[in-house]
Design brief:
There is one protein chain. The chain is α/β, with parallel strands linked by helices and about 150 residues long. It folds into two domains: about 50 residues; about 90 residues, Nucleotidyltransferase, domain 5 (2-Layer Sandwich), CATH 3.30.420. Strands 4-3-2-5-6 form a five-stranded mixed sheet, covered by helices on one side. The chain has a two-stranded parallel sheet with strand order 1-7. A hairpin with a 2-residue loop joins strand 3 and strand 4. The longest helix is centred in the first third of the chain and has 24 residues. It is elongated, with a radius of gyration of 28 Å.
Length: about 150
């Protein structure tokens, strides 16, 4: 039997099969819906996971001058939430885990930039504490994350 023809008997007295003229799009629609679901799930995982210095975390940063520091993939971003919790790559960590991450970053590259993104309500001492941990690990390039002032 040839592709695109209706199997079985037909009303044609010559005995030839009739040509199938309709396309069944149900399987195609099913494939597109499955792909849509896969893309939705993977995109939400990527956003929640946090990649590199841009972790996708909502921190109420203080206003500052123009943002002249561009984050690279090898840079580290440490967020300090208003309640004092430390967040590294989207995961809440304690001080010991942060020290280990700084040591690992130093082992990978001595030029790693540490960007500290502290909420406006975080005490200055907590920011200095995180920066001192980075310095103790040998990471000398430090930056403080701010949001650009309106109108700039």
């Amino acid at each position: 039997m040839a592709m695109g023809q209706v199997p079985g008997g037909s009303d044609d007295p010559t005995g030839e099969d009739a040509v199938f003229s309709e396309i069944n799009i149900t399987p195609l629609t099913d494939i597109f819906l499955v792909l849509l679901i896969i893309f939705m799930v993977t995109s939400s995982v990527i956003v929640n996971q946090g990649q590199g210095a841009k972790s996708g975390l909502k921190v109420n940063l203080p206003q500052g001058g123009a943002a002249d520091v561009a984050a690279n993939a090898s840079d580290m971003s440490v967020a300090i939430l208003s309640d004092g919790r430390l967040v590294l790559s989207g995961n809440v960590v304690n001080a010991d885990e942060l020290r280990k991450a700084f040591d690992d970053a130093k082992a990978r590259s001595a030029d790693t930039l540490v960007i500290v993104q502290a909420d406006e309500g975080v005490p200055h001492g907590k920011v200095v504490e995180v920066m001192e941990m980075a310095k103790a690990a040998g990471l000398a390039q430090l930056a403080i994350g701010v949001r650009e002032a309106p109108g700039k």
